[in-house]
Amino acid sequence: MCQKPKEKVNCQYCNLPFNTRSIGAHQTSCRRKHENDLSDKAYEKKLRKQEKRSERDGLILRGRETIMQTSHQLLDIEALNQPDESSGSRSVMVTGIDSEPAPIEIEDSPPLFSTVGNPEPCMSYSIISWYH
After folding, report:
1. How far is CA 10 from CA 6, 25, 26, in A?
2. Per-residue b/e over 99-125, b at no fewer than 16 CB within 10 Å?
3. What would the pLDDT profile of 47-66 be if each residue is shown by its tens digit?
4. Where are the alpha helices (DSSP H) in the chain?
5. Taking CA 123 as the corner, what is the angle to CA 95 and CA 105, rounded to the nearest 5 degrees?
6. In terms of Cα–Cα distance, which of 60, 82, 61, 85 is closest to 73?
7. I need a surface site. Which of 2, 42, 49, 82 has the fewest CB within 10 A?
8. What residues are paired with 93 via a beta bridge?
9. 3-state secondary structure of 35
10. Looking at residue 85, what is its pLDDT?
């Protein structure tokens, strides 16, 4: 008996030789892997572009956290957790590195809709003034 030699075909994604019977299954998995690699590379390229653009625009990106710079100053937020006895609100001081504090008042407000039991009060923020 004469056996027909098995024909080898190269994968179009990784260029490895495979039998014609098994090339279909291999190419499907190889294509997915190749597409994932391309999407990862495209995502990394997009992140690099965003970082360059944000550095140029005065933003600092750290992973998913974005910190904005205003007038070349990073803002420090200092929360005073002691409520004001007269109004039932607490104060938050927002300060720049070399600037005077700008107070923000946090007031307890009634909930937007009724709940059963003791509802948690909603917090609302209002900026009292801003110093430069």
Report:
1. 13, 13, 11
2. eebbebebeeeeeeeeeeeeeeeeeee
3. 888 888 877 776 554 444 44
4. 23-57
5. 35
6. 60
7. 2
8. 78, 103
9. helix
10. 56
Report, in angstroms and rounded to the nearest whole number, the Rg of the chain calculated over CA atoms. 30
Q: Name residues whose C-beta falls within 8 Å of residue 104's C-beta, 6 or more positions apart in sequence.
A: 91, 92, 93, 94, 125, 126, 127, 128
Q: Give the single-character DSSP code of 70.
A: B
Summary mean pLDDT of the chain = 64
**pLDDT band (50, 70, 90) for residue 14:** confident
Q: Where are the domains of the chain?
A: 8-58, 70-127
- CB atoms under 10 Å from CB of 18, counted, come to 19
Residues in the chain, overall count: 132
| pLDDT of 72 | 41
Amino acid at 111: P
Q: How far is CA 55 from CA 45, 48, 60, 97, in A?
A: 15, 11, 6, 20
